[in-house]
Amino acid sequence: MSKNIYVGNLSWSVTDSDLRNLFSEFGEIISARVIEDRETGRSRGFGFVEMDDAGAAKAIQSLNGKDVGGRGLKVNEAQPRESRPRY
């Protein structure tokens, strides 16, 4: 099984590769993605990491609040996206 982890308060310079490297010490990474603005391509300051359950629990505990690039990360289990009406 795998867990999807929300990673918030990322520095604007963090890349998918940086996110993968940060979490790799805790277990096998399935995917790591920094969310970008559709129009500008600039980081929106958060991302998601999918990894194995055991590693995810360790990563959340170890990285939540950790200073990375001068910013304290917010790391927790991702919640399902709420449906929004399309206009």
From TrEMBL:
GO molecular function, one term: RNA binding
Pfam family, any one: RRM_1
Keyword DNA-binding: no
Superkingdom, natural source: Bacteria
CDD domains: RRM2_NsCP33_like
Domain RRM: 3-80
The keyword RNA-binding belongs to this UniProt entry's keyword annotation: yes
UniProt KW keywords: RNA-binding
Protein name, UniProt field: RNA-binding protein
